[in-house]
Design a protein that fits this description.
The chain is α+β, with helices and mostly antiparallel strands. The chain contains 4 helices and 4 strands, in the order αβαβαβαβ. The protein has one domain: 2-Layer Sandwich (60s Ribosomal Protein L30, Chain: A), CATH 3.30.1330. Strand 2, helix 3 and strand 3 form a beta-alpha-beta unit. Helix 2 packs parallel to helix 3.
């Protein structure tokens, strides 16, 4: 989580994460445990297919705070350098 907090090269949101994973642009994916099951599975499957490591976060609120946004976030990712 610290790498997510201190990294300016991050993306936030399920759609953006899925798009970036499929394009091969992410080095790590973060997903909240309390997100809708369908969205959770989409993110996990896409990351596994692209062989991107996944870190699970306790809640959407915690993930949003780590990303520096004022709303809850279902997923986030760190862009490859």
């Amino acid at each position: 989580m610290e790498s997510l907090k201190n990294n300016a090269n991050r993306i936030v949101g399920t759609k953006q994460v899925l798009r970036a994973v499929k394009a091969g642009k992410l080095q790590r994916v973060y997903v909240a445990n309390d997100v809708d099951t369908f969205l959770y599975q989409q993110v996990i499957r896409a990351a596994e297919a692209a062989q991107v490591p996944v870190t699970r976060v306790a809640s959407m609120k915690e993930l949003g705070e780590a990303c520096g946004v004022q709303v809850a976030a279902a997923a986030a990712g760190i862009v490859k350098q």
